[in-house]
Amino acid sequence: MEVFEELNVVLPGELHWRDRFDPVRRLQTFMAEGPMTKLGAEESPGGRTAWLATGFDEVRQVLGSDKFSSRLLYGGTAAGITFPGFITQYDPPEHTRLRRVVSSAFTVRRMERFRPQVDQVVEDSLDAIESIGGPLDFVPHFGWSIATTATCDFLGIPRDDQVELSRSLHATRSRRAASRRGAAGNKFMTYMGQTVARRRRDPGDDMLSVVVREHGDEITDAELTGLAAFVMGAGGDQVARFLAAGAWLMVEAPEQFALLREKSDVVPDWLEEMLRYLTIDEKLTPRIALEDVRIGDHTIKAGDTVTCSLLGANRRAFPGPDDRFDITRERTPHVAFGHGIHHCLGRPLAELVFRSAIPALAHRFPALRLAEPEHEIKLGPPPFDVKALLLDW
């Protein structure tokens, strides 16, 4: 098991690191070998094999197939366990039920109603940045500020509680000591459980209330608590990472964002290209083959795992080496939000925030630049984590 965990968990984790915006050299080497790479296998007869998929079609095939499971059957600390409400760890039919119950909160109509609130959150954050003045770290003041406030508002978390809740969430990611991460996680989950209990008693118009009002009998408190924590984690964390990386990309490619600012009508799919190029979160649970599956020239045996590199697939989306960042492309194919039944449920919310925040930043600070251009931007562990981004204007 230890050898297989090394191949199934540790090695793929190392491949998620970045060289600035690009895949690390080791992942690039695997990509050059072909769309499917054998990472290694157990030495016992008939031992399981760990695979890496970097081909665009191959990744879509794995993620879109019902012949693979996303449950944590083995490998990692939660082997055999599904956390209640963490929808990415469910297989049908439980996944189908939860997805249907929650999807009503992410409709186009609800997103349109939420748009003015997101726009105001963005404007308030930019006003605060301008009033503080530069140079300023845009990771907390632009990324975390907008992402956590917008996500908390969507979940119905009172503004008075948002700072402390966001601090607990951030501590679960950033604290070095496992005991402190655990304490922060317990505090975070306790608050979410209390919020669910309040929504059961007195539903409002937020996401949790919509689920309670329309499908309350079909979801348990534990599932709803886990779901709230999952949405907050994805919205508060992954959206923040995208916004920080997006601000960094903006100062690295100023001519592209000048075009977005001055001629936005000619670049209608700019966000699709940003999503493809940045691919913020590719830490997918390795998929486990439930039966023998043929992928390209390879047979994936039942019990084998396949780690799908979304970054690898997105950098292969165009023929040849043409994976440079270019917002003038026609609509860009990508799997930045995954594919298949686990395609990101919160994509409408995330895109709503991105479409508001990135153009607003480009317009408000057209001269945005690195405050210390001689210093290398420090990246934390995956997913794509800009530790600090000191900008001036």
TrEMBL record:
A single MF term (Gene Ontology): monooxygenase activity
Heme listed as a keyword: yes
Q: List, alphabetically, the Pfam families matched.
A: p450 (PF00067)
Q: Which UniProt keywords apply?
A: Heme, Iron, Metal-binding, Monooxygenase, Oxidoreductase
The entry sums up its family as follows: Belongs to the cytochrome P450 family.
What protein am I looking at?
Cytochrome P450
Give the source species: Streptosporangium carneum
* Organism placement in taxonomy: Bacteria, Bacillati, Actinomycetota, Actinomycetes, Streptosporangiales
